[in-house]
Amino acid sequence: MREILILQLGGFGIKMGMKFWEEMLKDSEFCNDNEQVTQSNNHLLNTSNAVYYNLHEKKALPRCIQVDLGQDLPYTNIDFNPCNQFSFNYSSGNNFGFVKNNCSNEIVDILIDSIRQEVEQCDSFQGFQIFASIIGGTGSGLSAILSQKLEEEYSTAITQCNLLVPSIKQDDLCVVSPYNSTLSFNILMDSAQQLIFYDNQGLKQNLNRLGIQFNYDDANLLVSQTICCNSSPFRNPGDVNSSLRKLSTNLIPFPELKLLTCSLTNNQFSDYYKEYLKMDEYQVFKELMSTDHNQTSINYTQGIFLTAALSLRGNISNKEIDLQKSLFEHFIDNSYYRRGSFAKKVKQFNMFFTNICKKTLSNYEFMGSSIINSSSIIESLKSLDEKFNKMQIRKSYMYKYTQEGIEEEEFNEAQTRLRDIYHFYEDKFNEDDGENNENFE
Known about the structure:
With 441 residues, the chain is α/β, with parallel strands linked by helices. The chain contains 15 helices and 13 strands. Strands 1, 4, 5, 6, 7, 8, 9, 10, 11, 12 and 13 form an eleven-stranded mixed β-sheet that branches. It has a two-stranded antiparallel sheet with strand order 2-3. Strand 2 and strand 3 form a beta hairpin. Helix 3 packs parallel to helix 4, helix 4 packs across helix 14 (408-429) and helix 12 (378-394) runs antiparallel to helix 14. The radius of gyration is 21 Å and the shape is globular. The termini are far apart.
């Protein structure tokens, strides 16, 4: 079994990770009281081994490491390995520079030793999943530093970062979030293989559409269910034997195009879907590829589709899903979207990578999630660049970073890198389609 190690960094990473392990417990072979049920003696057939260990004892332990600098870890009924829970008497002060230059020497060595112990217990280790928010100081600093160290220590492993990023049209509670996000983004682009974006505005739109007033618990639950569904192909037997590496191979056509977004079907949130809306292959596919269900506040119709990975659960027909994929590709190749804009896809790539797991989650007949690589992510990058530029011109709060050892050259380098990625996606969007453009006219 190809094991995955979960790293929960900062307040968001830990709280969302708690929800994630609650969902994983429902999807595993364990009872609700966390006691082990009868399992196969063959480790290759024991799918829980990917994210759990200590399977032959009374209680299995999640394969994760939890780190926070400024506060105690929240209470939960789930049993974790206490040796992998770290809470330090620091306060990052929402400052990326403080975490990078002052805390890293004391903390990273401790974390790397703990990570090494976990990896040595694995039979066929495949990679890391990082949960963090790059809005604040702890998540942005630790995710950047650890990803660098992991790239040096485990160059063959895949690092997937699930990141909460600043929203596009609204300001975050952290005033210096553009600084933290841009400085962290500059390092993560070199050290991580997959960067999956979420933002509070996109999560709020998803919850409001279901009649749920936005709060952080429901938002964390939404993200955790999405990640749980996305990782189901790694943990459960399906039509395609998937892994983090295979996901990177199918989703990332170029090394610089590694920014991804997610969607989740909403049938598990609302009674409306159970009573009035029939959930079939068409409805599931429609929700997964719709802008309305995107958990980042971007518009897919304003960009070009590169690739997409669909993780479907339930008794879903492969034939119907293939039909919907063909119809969708035909639609985006030959039809306009609203307001005169249209979405395209890159012809030379196989757009869809689909895995169907027949095992249902929490008795939901159909459920699915998608990871999409689209050039519409430039909306988020452009918004971040504008916020960063407004603060940098006035040098607002920059002295707090220079006091912690961050030089102005690092700000300029980070902004240049952000704009390079933005223009790389923009060039791909503006790439001439040749004959298709003539047909549209």
